[in-house]
Amino acid sequence: MRITTMKLVALATCTTALLAGCGGRPETAATAISDSKFLGLPSMTSAAAGPVDSATWALYRDPTTIDPALAFDYPENTVVSTLCDALLRQQPDGSLTPGLASEYHFDTPTSLVLKLRAGVRFWDGQPLTPADVVFSLQRNLDTQTGGFYSTVLNRISAITVDGPDRVRLTLSGADYWLPGELSSMAGVIVEERYARGQGQRYGTPEGGAMCTGPYKLAEWTAGKSLKVAVNPDYWDPSLKPMTRQIDFRGVSNAATLTTALSTGEISGTYLTDTSTFRELEQIKNAQIHMGPSGETEFLIPANLTGVLGDVRVRKALSLAFDRNSFSNAVYGGNAVGPRMSTNPGTWGYAKDAFTAAWNAAPEPALDLEQAKQLIRDAGAAGKPLVIGTSTGLSTVNTAANAWLEAANAIGLNASLRNVSPQNYINFFTDAQAREGVDAFSTTTYGDYADPAALIASYTEPKGAQNYSGYDNPQLHAALERARTAADPEQRAAATIEADRLVMADLPWIPMVHPALFLIMDKKLTGAPSSFAYMQAPWLAKLGQGQ
């Protein structure tokens, strides 16, 4: 589970309080996407007609590592997923299929057996072995690694070789979330011999990497570009790379990215900053594709000792937040209000059950009068609310100003605390940085298509994103039922119950669920238009347009 998603895109300073005037946001109202259209967005673009020699793919910044244990944000995940394989594979529709493990099954609720696929080799020709799997998973659990995934693997009590092609995971308790985790960065397998040889250099420009994926690392110049080239011996013929070389480049400025896409210097990207959405729509040689996303925008209470400790205040803020204007300003209207707390793109199983729950849930409505009454009932009128922001981060600052306006409109005494784009991430990593701040916002997601993957991260007492110390025994019990349910329908029912408790108690306040935005040169196609690109090598499908 990643800690958070940070869109650390340094843009021009934006200090206006109005959504439509901030960071190049659209000035006119967009047509809001309907729920039915949003739930039916395609997960793939059209299949490629043939191979191409090269493509230049933009990331919102340069990757800092290609070590899967340390990958927790868009640039690193995009590159690692292109280079490496996990034990299980996330399909574009969010479902799970075998990956490096050709078979997997629970022979008891606390024992998961993985059979490794025959014939898989690392880029250097060495065969994939059970020892590589044991090493990679133990590395995630080792505090010396300093990785991000030990908490999501915390029910693994033993990892043992169980034959020439099998690995057994012994668990301290039932955990049917584990297959999802093994399809994400936590389940990526690296070559033990190579990683041990590189030590702390593994995953750096000096140490490189050794994986089994459809592409191999060709060249990495820190701060300039990272190039990957076809792995001619890739084990999976269904994902034979269609583009011979991909050059990943960090492009932090939205205006620069827009220009580079219009000139063809950049071939495509998954958009993490939509501040130039209207300009991107006008590029003649490129097309925006929308698909199911795992992302949700949240207002995150930093503590529950201040005004946000009263659920009536949290509910009042949710009622006062103008989601339509925010969606229009940030996503061109291509986001939906949170009937449930997580994006419909996270429904990787039991979709009928989740769809029914979504349709039965009320659509969030703006209601200032009810919100004001809740503030009066809570005795919170005039009480301070400090919202963390960074004027250098377009989406963050737009959200902060929208919350400021909503809070003051219902009688709170709200203010902003501005920090630099580089320091904004400290709200997520440093308790001292959160002192004196009541809330901040971000876009975040789970690592596989299950709403529980995200909910657990910020509501469980030891969740990686539970910054406020929130603790709801009823919610914990629902999540525990989901985690220990082998039957997908029972798991979905418990997860829906947990989601309803989240919407009632609002430990985090969901703002909107945006679509996924992929923009590509019209000469290219084949890339997935779903969030699966973050965890599986689907960019191998990128190739010549029809």
SS element count, helices: 18
Major sheet size, sense and barrel closure: 7 strands, mixed
- Assembly type of the chains comes to single chain
Rg, alpha carbons:
23 Å
Order the strands across the largest sheet as they lie in space: 8-9-10-1-11-19-12
Structural class: alpha+beta
Strand proportion, as a percent range, falls in 15-25%
Shape: globular
End-to-end span in angstroms? 37 Å
How many beta-strand elements?
A: 21
Low-confidence stretches: 1-27
Range of helix content: 25-40%
- Roughly what is the average pLDDT, rounded to an integer? 93
Protein name: ABC transporter substrate-binding protein
Signal peptide: 1-20
Organism: Nocardia tengchongensis
Pfam families: SBP_bac_5
Explain this structure to me?
The chain is an alpha+beta fold and 546 residues long. The chain is 29% helix and 21% strand. The chain has a seven-stranded mixed β-sheet, sandwiched between helices. Strands 4-5-7-6 form a four-stranded antiparallel β-sheet, with helices on one face. Helix 8 runs antiparallel to helix 11. Mean pLDDT is 93; it is low at 1-27.
SSE inventory with pairings:
Blueprint: H1 35-39, E1 52-59, H2 74-83, E2 88-90, E3 96-98, E4 101-108, E5 111-116, H3 130-141, E6 156-161, E7 166-171, H4 178-181, H5 192-198, E8 215-221, E9 225-230, E10 243-250, H6 254-263, E11 268-270, H7 277-281, E12 286-291, E13 296-301, H8 311-320, H9 323-331, E14 335-336, H10 351-360, H11 368-377, E15 384-389, H12 394-409, E16 413-418, H13 421-424, H14 426-429, H15 431-434, E17 439-444, H16 451-459, H17 473-483, H18 488-505, E18 509-514, E19 516-521, E20 524-525, E21 543-544
Parallel strand pairs: 1-10, 1-11, 15-16
Antiparallel strand pairs: 2-3, 4-5, 5-7, 6-7, 8-9, 9-10, 11-19, 12-19, 13-17, 13-18, 14-18, 20-21
